[in-house]
Design goal:
Layout: E1 10-13, H1 18-29, E2 33-38, H2 44-56, E3 60-65, H3 75-78, E4 83-86, H4 98-119, E5 125-129, H5 165-182, E6 188-194, E7 196-198, H6 209-218, E8 230-235, H7 236-248, E9 254-258, E10 261-264, H8 265-270, H9 273-276, H10 289-299, H11 305-311, H12 321-327, H13 334-347
Keywords: Oxidoreductase
Domain NAD-dependent epimerase/dehydratase: 10-249
Protein name: NAD-dependent epimerase/dehydratase family protein
């Protein structure tokens, strides 16, 4: 197990985010001082979940206001930090202006944070939250890969401003990070590439895309069935653990695919059947591809016909052996992730029986 350095503060950007919440919880419980950047320090409502953890944890949290698009806005927060966790990045599938809503904040934000790391002498390691979206664009892309499996060597070459702009934003931001890292010798960069992150949140009223998916499985939206869509899934708590290991394992280097399971939407829903099948209209079957192609874009404007054509009916396979071997990750069972997540939505009144 890696040894956590409790003496030096760490910076976590995007502190109110889904992954950041669990990462900060683990850091505070380990006795670390966390410099947490948020867009608005005055918005106490968004910070109450972190404050509740900090009250009883041995570590300390300090908030700093910073903006991804403002040069130098991370300088104060980064002071004296040895590790920088850059988790802040917009995750929205439906946007009106991809360039300004996704690409600019992802790329410019990465540039700002990593440039500041080079200007801050204490920084020795940067851990960047990227995504498997920077590795592949559509499931159809996997047919061009050896054994049809996604590995850390692969880069997403099929996404663009007009097709999968979110995936394109993650790809461009990560490329920018490697470019900056290679032009300095002060700190090392380790990149975390999670697949679809699921599981309960520190802030139970998150607006992450993962919440939309699990809510629709339980509220009747997907009652008729789900697309036959292969996907990788990982527990948010395992993603937080991967960040910690990436920060404090001396030999950690390069990119790490963080994915517990090669699965499908139907298989994800099946994990909920034993406990919740009687009381909730969970999806039980796969919809024919032509039907998804026909009505998908009307039900979900983010799901274009091209996306449906390139993903439905294709399996997804990711290789997570590097994360297990080098970061020592042990992945939670898919059933635990799905059931814990579903239970949280019920407890917080976001799903009615």
């Amino acid at each position: 197990m890696y040894r956590i350095d409790r003496k030096s503060p760490v910076l976590v950007t995007g502190a109110t985010g889904y992954v950041a919440g669990w990462l900060i919880k683990r850091l505070l419980e380990s006795g670390v001082t966390v410099h947490a950047t948020v867009r608005n320090v005055q918005d106490q409502d968004k910070l109450k979940h972190l404050n509740r953890i900090a009250r009883t944890a041995p570590g300390t949290i300090r908030y700093f206001q910073a903006d991804l698009l403002d040069d130098g806005s991370y300088a104060e927060a980064m002071q004296d930090c040895r590790v920088v966790f850059h988790t802040a990045s917009p995750f929205r599938l439906l946007v009106d202006d991809p360039q300004n809503e996704l690409i600019a904040p992802a790329v410019q934000g990465t540039r700002n944070v990593l440039t500041q790391a080079t200007l801050t002498p204490s920084v020795q390691r940067v851990v960047l939250t990227s995504s498997c979206a920077a590795i592949y664009g559509d499931n159809a892309d996997l047919s061009d890969l050896e054994h049809g499996v996604v590995t850390e060597e692969v880069w997403n070459r099929s996404s663009s401003l007009n097709h999968n702009p979110y995936s394109y934003s993650k790809t461009e931001a990560e490329k920018e990070a490697w470019c900056i890292a290679q032009n300095q010798k002060q700190w090392t960069l380790v990149v975390i590439n999670p697949s679809l992150v699921m599981g309960p949140s520190i802030n139970p009223h998150m607006t992450s895309e993962s919440f939309h998916i699990i809510r629709q499985m339980g509220d009747g939206t997907m009652k008729a069935g789900v697309p036959d869509w292969g996907i990788g899934v990982v527990d948010v708590r395992d993603v937080a653990e991967a960040h910690l290991s990436a920060a404090y394992t001396a030999h950690a280097q390069g990119r790490y695919i963080i994915s517990g399971y090669n699965t499908t939407f139907l298989e994800m829903a099946r994990q909920l059947q034993p406990k919740y099948g009687k009381h909730y209209p969970l999806p039980k079957r796969v919809l024919p591809k032509f039907l998804v192609w026909l009505v998908g874009p009307m039900l979900n404007p983010a799901m274009t016909r091209k996306t449906i054509a390139q993903n439905v009916g294709y399996t997804w396979k990711g290789n997570n052996t590097k994360s297990i071997g080098e970061l020592g990750l042990k992945y939670r069972p898919l059933s635990v992730t799905m059931n814990d997540f579903f239970a949280q939505l019920i407890e917080t009144g976001q799903l009615e029986r």
